[in-house]
Specification:
With about 160 residues, the chain is mainly α. It has two domains: about 50 residues; about 100 residues, no CATH class. The chain is built from six helices and two strands, in the order αααβααβα. The protein has a two-stranded antiparallel sheet. Helix 3 packs across helix 5. It is rod-shaped, with a radius of gyration of 31 Å. The structure holds zinc ion. The site of zinc ion has 8 residues, from strand 2 and helix 6.
């Protein structure tokens, strides 16, 4: 009995060494192929892996970004496509007022989905979103100056 166990142990040792030798040899001979397979499998699953890591809000945001073209739509052109640097822009302004009405900026994404992606919105990168805001402010000031001018002229 003891002898049999001894034999088994020997045989196991021999075989497991053979097996690991085989695995090592197989890996060395097919290294590139094996690595490619691993990379391919990562690339194939990357979307899923990333999706699993994303929060509910990020998933909703992705859906909206996809709908609105997933790229900054600044009229003069802009190549920003990164989800984290893209934001929803109210084309005609009034974004703050609108966000207040729907209960905060956190609700905007859900509101867009619930309202079936309405017109009047576009994606801008943060820089161009800021630039748009500045342009609108300037325009508003200019309109006010023009109005004031008209007013004073009318007094003459
Ligand atoms: Zn941009």
């Amino acid at each position: 009995m003891e002898k049999h166990r001894e034999q088994c142990r020997e045989s196991y040792k021999r075989h497991s060494k053979e097996k690991s030798d085989y695995a090592r040899k197989h890996y060395i001979e097919n290294k590139d192929e094996i690595r490619n397979q691993q990379n391919e499998s990562y690339t194939e699953n990357k979307g899923n892996i990333n999706l699993r890591r994303k929060s509910y809000r990020e998933i909703i945001k992705e859906k909206i970004l996809d709908h609105y073209g997933h790229k900054c739509q600044w009229p003069e052109g802009c190549d920003v496509v990164d989800s984290e640097t893209l934001t929803i822009d109210h084309i005609d302004g009034g974004g703050n007022k609108h966000k207040r009405e729907i209960g905060g900026s956190n609700r905007l994404y859900k509101w867009l989905i619930d309202n079936n992606f309405p017109e009047g919105f576009r994606l801008l990168c943060w820089n161009h979103n800021w630039k748009h805001k500045c342009n609108m402010e300037r325009e508003k000031k200019f309109t006010n100056i023009e109005r004031a001018k008209d007013f004073f002229i009318s007094l003459w």
